[in-house]
User: Fold these one by one.
Assistant:
Number 1:
Amino acid sequence: MNFSKKLHVLLTNDDGIESAGLRYLWEGLKDNVDITVIAPDKERSGSGAAATLDRIVITPTSWYDTTTKAYKVSGTPVDCVRAGLSILLPTPPDMILSGINHGTNSGRTIVFSGTIGGVIEGVLRNIPGIAFSYWNYDTSDFGHTAKYIWPIVDYLSKQTMPHGSFYNVNFPKHLDQEIKGLKVVPHGFSNWIEQPEPFPSEEGHYSMRGVWVDHNEPEGTDVHYLKQGYVTASPIHIAQLTDFAVLDNHKEPFERSFQEHLKTPLFMH
């Protein structure tokens, strides 16, 4: 991308319209781009690429200034992006930015992240995107993220990304301390794992919040560098879903095996 006009970006998230992360994502961009905020009306963490197939409710809402248009949606981040593209915006945005998530989306967490789900929905429609996450839950600390947003968006908005690709950006835990730099790296292997906790007074009811489980991360992954105090940026590709190595290995024997079963008495008419 290389825009002579001012960028127009759609902001969304999975922590909800009132989250600190969304506010500071806006804070980091408001002086440089035109912004429309379309975010869930409540927390939708872990919603991945889930979408509502029935009714959603879109409600205009006030924002921290009078010029930014903002809407809350009774749905997931994907619903928010769909509402923006098919209902609210007269033309598609130049980019879709999601976050800043409360907690890291490094390692394998990208599979179920609602923050990333919103970006994927745009990428599937050929709209570039970036997901932002912060390895911190202390909302009073989120203000430290804002100054790092524009340098990242400014650079990536001028690049041409292949169809199906986007960037996943993670901030390390202590942004109040000196940041060592940014590393463009692959994803690691660590993950959030569920830790069920029963509700004492409600039989069969469980909290399914997760705990972070560290794998033995090789040097060079996003998790490795986050622990060293770097911001990480990982390019993700989602358009080519087929595993062609497996396809080549299994195609003929799998098809032949199934065809042989069709010759057995069970399938004879």
Note: The helical segments are 20-27, 77-88, 114-123, 146-156, 222-227, 244-261.
Number 2:
Amino acid sequence: MHSKVRVAVVGGGVIGLTSAIRLKEAGYAVDVLARDFTPNNTSDVAAAFWCPYRVSEDERAFAWAQRTFDVFAELQPIAAAGIEMRRQREVFKHPAENPWYYKITRGFARCMNDQLPPGFIDGFEFDTYLIDTPTYMKYLNDRCADSGISLKQTEVPRLESLREDYDLAVNCTGVWARKFVGDTKVYPIRGQVIVTHLPEDFSRTITTWDAGEYPAYIVPRLKTCILGGTTLAENWDLTPDPETAIGIRQRCSTLNPEVAKLEALDDRVGLRPGRKRVRLERDDSLPDLPVVHCYGHGGSGFTLSWGCAEEVVQLLS
């Protein structure tokens, strides 16, 4: 057991909290240090559903995604976690191959022509997990607190400042790793979404990624519906843009015309941590403070979270 080994997890999003939970379960004394916790961080803006997006297609990512899918299956019966199995449909205006992750999903099937919106010629669907982010992030926070993990709202200026109080550190700062550790390989991918009321007959997630930086997705959650979105690289602007919101609604209307009638409740913006590959590695360059870096998950933070958290524990052991 590691009960006397003090670990600082820097970052209060989904990656930081899941890493903290697994470290605590492994016996470490864990504090989570973050500038923002739910409901005020990037993870709270996410749609979110299990589906690898804007992440490298390699064996490590596949393993993290598989493990996270399995953990979501374990969490689904817990009402407080806010996880449901939903049918997801992805549609295209060009012929599309099966996605690299399709063997992880359940009930994968190609779409018939009568299942496609007008103007789309190909698609597939599968059962996956919807993560209701307001509910799930509160669940993770509560699970941390109930297990004895301290959640400290603070600004950590640099890793070196942790050496006096901690034996180990985990860097889960997302896009802010660009400043925090000077990683110029990480960059923002700006995502804007519209939060609307939830119609009774909305249950299926439908997405299209054909439009590059301007995809369209409709994600019914437990109490609201998310219309998205944007994937604007190197854009740090956190202010919702009214013209962007108009474009989102127009694009989503091509998937389902009913979204034009949905009442907007909020416009939100988050910065996905883009990187060619997730950085998940141990760093022993600081004297007396081994560090594991875990950031750069693109649009797949929730999708890879538990798999990455368990590798964090392995790297620190």
Note: The mean pLDDT is 95.
